[in-house]
């Protein structure tokens, strides 16, 4: 395959080829992000962010002394230094950005899983706490109802006892009144009988005296 036929390289213009290379390396990193295991990504991120400042350092040195950073290239110009090490710096930077995003996504996935587990545990704990609270409230309600029922029964019993006592006292009072009335009537009857007897005796005595007087006069 002739790489000159690839889009971006056909014109052989330096800046177009530079931009095309950046785009293609970015696409390559995105593809690698999808297939590279999560355990390798931290190392790639470290390589990317370590290579980026080193490439910038080499770029600065190359702008001063191109032969120091382009030892195997015959034409050692500052333009080649700029295209080579700026491309390298951007490539390392994109590597770090792409794979740190993947790392963050992985961490977010792990965090989401941990959060889900924690949420599930919290939900179970909340459910258990809710059940315990409901059970405590139910027992408290039952205890309150029991005490209220006992208080109502006690008051009802006291009321019944009070009414029974009042009824007993009323009957005793009626019985006493009845007996007193009977006693009063008996005494009144006796007094009346006594007076009638005395009256009868008095009249008999008067009648006897009258007859004796008549007998004496005759």
TrEMBL record:
Keywords: Membrane, Transmembrane, Transmembrane helix
Biased composition (Basic and acidic residues): 122-218
Region annotated Disordered, chain positions: 110-218
Presence of the UniProt keyword Membrane in the record: yes
Transmembrane segments: 14-36, 42-64, 85-102
Domain of life according to the entry: Bacteria
Protein name: Protein TolA
Species this chain originates from: Bacillus cereus ISP2954
The organism's taxonomic lineage, starting at the top: Bacteria, Bacillati, Bacillota, Bacilli, Bacillales
